[in-house]
C-alpha cells in the first residue's frame, strides 16, 4: 500500500477575491496527497479573508494576517514558519488553477531524491482570465548553477521542494531578496540539490490585469521591464550572488563556489569580467538573455 505524501501548500494572498475560490478548489481536489494549507494574507481589504475562512471545515487551514511585505518576502516568511509535519512544500498563487495531478506528479519525482535536498518545477500553460489556453512560452533550460545566476525562468507557482531543501533555505534570511522563486532555485543549484524539471505543464497560469508578475507579456512590455531594471542599476545578479555566498557557503559545492567567487570578483576589474564572458560555465539557454548579460558585464552593471 502506497503512503500518501503530506504536502504543505503555502499561499500568499492580497485582494484576491476575484479568482481565489477557483484556486482553492483546485488545491483541495489534488489527487494522491494529503494537504495542509497555510495562507499568509498581505493586508487585503476585500473579501479574501472571508473566502479563505469558508474553507475551514474542508481542510487543515492556517491563516496568518500580516503587514504588506510583497510576494517575495511573504512567500519566504511562509516557508520559514511552515511546520515540520509535511514531507513536501509547494508555493501557490491566489489566481491560478491546478490540474488534479500537479502535486502527485511532483512528489513522486521528489521521492526519488531520498534525503538529498530536491526541487521540482514544471512548464506552465498560460490561460486568460476565463482559463482559456493562450500561447505559452516554452523553456528548455540547461539546469546548471551558472545558468541560474544569469537567467530567471522558474515560476514559483510550479515549485515543490522536500523538507531537506526547505531546512537549508530557512537557515539564512537574506538582506537582499529578489523574487522568492529566483532565490530558491539559485540556492538549490548552488548546493547541488537534485533538480526535477517537468516539461509537461500541470498548472493553468492565469494572465490578467492584476498579476504581480506574469509570463504573457508583450515583447514591448518585456523589453521595457529590462530597460527599467538596467536604468535603475539594480545589479540584481551580483547582489544575489553575494547573498548566496554569505548565507550558504557551508553548503555550496566546491565547483559552484569557484563559479560564485569568479562571478562576484568580476565586479573588481574589466579583465575579470572579460574572463566571465569566456567562462563556459556561465551559459544560459536563452540567447537574448545571454547577450544582454554579456553587455551588462562589460559595463559592470550585473
Notable features of this structure?
7-stranded mixed beta sheet, alpha/beta, 12 helices, 3-stranded mixed beta sheet, 302 residues, 2 domains, globular
Structural account:
39% of the residues lie in helices and 17% in strands. It is an alpha/beta fold and 302 residues long. It folds into two domains: 5-206, Spore Coat Polysaccharide Biosynthesis Protein SpsA, Chain A, CATH 3.90.550.10; 219-298, no CATH class. Helix 1 links the parallel strand 1 (5-13) and strand 2. The termini are far apart. The relative contact order is 0.14.
| Helix-residue proportion | 25-40%
Our estimate of the beta-strand percent is: 15-25%
What does the largest sheet look like?
A: 7 strands, mixed
Strand order of the largest sheet: 3-2-1-4-8-6-9
Report the structural category: alpha/beta
The overall average pLDDT, rounded, is 93
* Uncertain spans: none
